[in-house]
Amino acid sequence: MRARARGQFKNVATSSAAYDTPEEGPELSRVAHDRALEGDLIGTSKAELHTCLTGGDRFGYVGTDRFSGSVAGRRGTFVFQHGGVRQGGELRSFGFIVPGSGTGDLAGIQGSATISVDAAGTHALELDYDFV
Description:
Blueprint lengths: L2 E18 L7 E12 L1 E15 L2 E14 L2 E14 L2 E8 L11 E9 L5 E9 L1
Antiparallel strand pairs: 1-2, 1-8, 2-3, 3-4, 4-5, 5-6, 7-8
């Protein structure tokens, strides 16, 4: 049976470095985040993102996170991959839990994993998941 879990998160540590800075066009960067989550998802996550900032509130990114903590009381880890584009104040995102990446009580977790940012700037991770 599918379940849904949502956790708000803060990026508690961030580092970034450009890896492509052309004379014309946007630069490409790697961004690393350490995240702290609360809500239905309690724990931490280590993220590495590849970003393209095009000016104003427009950008695109793809990333990989390793979550460590609990989901609805089940403890363990899993990896999720995600991405999105933002334009006109709207983030259109996608993401998935990597099949076979769960450990501990989260072994066998599968499903979608999407990140959202509301108008107040609150970041959230939402899982739509089940176990195999």
